[in-house]
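Action item from last week, closing it out:
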Amino acid sequence: MNLIIYTIIVALIISFALGVLLGLFKKIFAVKVDPKVQEVRDALSGGNCGGCGYAGCDAFAEAVVAGDAPASGCVAGGAECAAKVAAVMGVDAGVAEKKVAFLACNGTKECAPDKAEYEGVKTCAGAQLTMNGTKKCAFGCIGFGDCEAACPFGAISMGSDGLPKVDAGKCVGCGKCAKACPKHLFVLINADTKGAIARCSNHSDNKPQIKKDCSVGCFKCGICAKKCPEQCIDMASGIPQIDYAKCTSCGTCVSSCPDKVLHLIG
């Protein structure tokens, strides 16, 4: 019985001594943190999405206070967050443009057939690594939903047609989907952009093969550029690139495209 009591007393003494030592070590080795870091951190969205270019909100807050990141860098928080951070730092909020993700592919299950039956891990990254994607079109969306899994805001869901759908109302433009997609099919555009955009990423110049691989792939005919009354479409990359400073959203290119590649946004 005495042994048990002595053991308890010794354990309590050791625990107390360790607690005192830990407290002393904390004070001795404490790293001074600028209180502004916590203020900036509290003003952020808390999404930890990495859209700012840093590992998370804590890292971004430290970068803002250090002067390495702008007050408007939190894409998830938008203009309201930028204003709060700017107030903490005593600087101009700058321009915080909301961005949204856009899928540059229209190759649904019906339009872009698979080249073979895939039996591996059902991830886009896995399919890309083992057989360069599942579809005949080497540029097309694989459709296993890596982008959906990566989105921290629930803005992406896989459609019944095999393509991911972006909810512009939920999307904050963090770019997680773009990083997760092994085909690099997501582009980030300003939410207020108005004009035409191409739903295809096939840069191949093998026209006959394009049509075999996907019935809605860009055929590189250039009709859109020829018909555009503002001459704001460039075909140099093989995919229609629109100069939004000139585009008036007239829709001429959309209606004239035989493959229905172009889509009006905004």
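Closing note: The chain is about 35% helix and 10% strand.
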